[in-house]
Amino acid sequence: MTYDCDVLVVGSGAGGATLAYACARAGKNVLLLERGYGYVVNPHAGPSHEHGHDERAMLIDKKPYDDRPIEVNGAEKRLYMGGVLGGGTALYGAALLRPSEDDFHPGRHYGSRIPRAIWDWPILYEDLAPYYARAERLFGVSGCGDEDFGPLRKPADGYPGQPLPLHPINQQLMDSSRADGLRPFRLPLAIDSSRCLRCHACAGYVCPTGARRSSGQLLAQAAAEGLALRVLTGVEVQRLSLEANGCGVTAIDRASGQTSVYRARRYVLAAGAIGSPVLLMKSGAAGPLIGRNYMAHLSPIVAGIFPRHTGAETTFVKQVGFADYYLGAEGYAHKMGLVQSLPVPGPLMTAKSAPRFLPAWALRFLRQRMLPLVGIVEDLPDPANRVCWSPNGKPSLRHRFGAYDLERGRQLSRRIARILKRAGARLCLSSGFASDEHVAHQCGTLRFGTDPGHAVLSADCRMFDHPNVFVADGSFMPTSLGIGPALTIIANALRVAEVVCAEV
Questions:
Q1: Which end of the chain is more exposed for a tag (fewer CB within 10 A), N or C?
Q2: What does each C-alpha distance from 459 to 102, 119, 253, 479, 496 come to in angstroms?
């Protein structure tokens, strides 16, 4: 059989572009197909986009987000899901944290709340540790390695980059929290402080300078290094042949409508925890777990309202994290997860989420005195939470948080409010969790394991039924961790890349 490449990757997000770059660096011929558009001008610039920091274009009209309507819990919606080159990393908040060792043994904390088969991940933290270090270097993570991260792991030799100077309101937050016996730390961020403009509009927007590292930049690096990595944008994969003779991937150019078939020695799906299982379903893949156990973190948001201007609405403030309640707290011995800073939402997003009776001046008053924090509560796997694909060509998503998740969210919200009030907030406004348009941190729909009766993928993230097909996005995760999964997805993609390269 004639092959178009050694490795074909579907999707350019955190896992896909990272694996493609690693395989190309290893001397393999790689083809990456990306449904979205956009490009990287050079290794030191972000994906170009005409809309800049236009809040309406970015977050209301969702110009850089996936343009496919998806039925969510019975209602058709456009999701906040990356739709340009770089996928979610073109728009993410860039907090790249290592998990706790306990995250690889979820049975220790959840017991009978989750199936016995996933009480332990098929790999250990130690197995991923060297890849975490590589991922931090690859994405230039900036942080303070001498701070106390509690149960979360951190690099033994510190972070490769220097963090941004701490904003005064965040210094106030950290000082008051330490006086209260907590251990706040600076979030490790994939942001180059020497080029960062400290925009108040960061997460959710395309970075104007490329200071916020994206996986799309790796593809530009590959081109600059002359590697055998070809990237086709605006190309939507229709199906993956799963026959024994491996006929290839059928894809359509969205601009011209032209259909092409590409053949590779190995295929890697990295279209996200919604996109990858849908592609397998469209391709006729069988298996009761494909698309099931969809997870996205429960994210209780608490905004502290201070008596004076915080300055947070005009500059970058996503800088502080707390892991004090990660594995539980006094009086509540249940794992709750990370607490971290959020940027102040822009005027349009504030108006979208606020009660309609509030006038514009009141919203402006609140934004000027606001400092938000968010919790990241692990959404436990539930087979009823699933991604489906119907013959009419439309994907659908069904997802509800369980009672236990909601209770942990309420418990964490109370503790977040206490943090903010100790820092000087006079009032705290709470939201149970983000709307179901938000699908950041999606994972779990093609989980890995050692037993094909309880998993879709092997420990190497290879499909049990189709050994030439691998998965490199967040679909592989059997549980969702209590932190954002981006660094774990990147590290795992580097690990899987070694397996793929050894075979082609």
A1: N
A2: 18, 15, 34, 14, 9
